[in-house]
Ribonuclease A-domain domain-containing protein (Seriola dumerili), 122 residues
Amino acid sequence: MHCDVTDRYRKFIAQHINGQMSVNRCDDEIRNRHITKTDSNECKETNTFIRATTNIVKSICERAGEPYGQMTKSLQPFDIVVCSLRNQQGRHPRCQYRGQARTRRIAIRCEQGLPVIYSNVG
């Protein structure tokens, strides 16, 4: 099944954008947003939430980013929350995560000026 760029952009927002995210909200947010490994109900190993608005993240694709291989890297650091899986054999909706707050530049893949994939950097 081929998704168009708008679908991938919507999925990116659902998986990675949350301006109000905190380290103790990983379990609830990942469960409520139905974030799993692709096409399965297995728990995703890690998921990163960017504490920013959609428009600010989108601006990385325009003038607030620089080329980084196949990705675009933000010029400014972002506050992020990295949720790491604690129960390795877990299945959605029983995934349990540990959250860590970090501040770092982020890398995203842009298509037609929209962020569609998040990549961990450094």
User: Anything to note?
Assistant: The mean pLDDT is 94. The chain has one domain: 5-119.
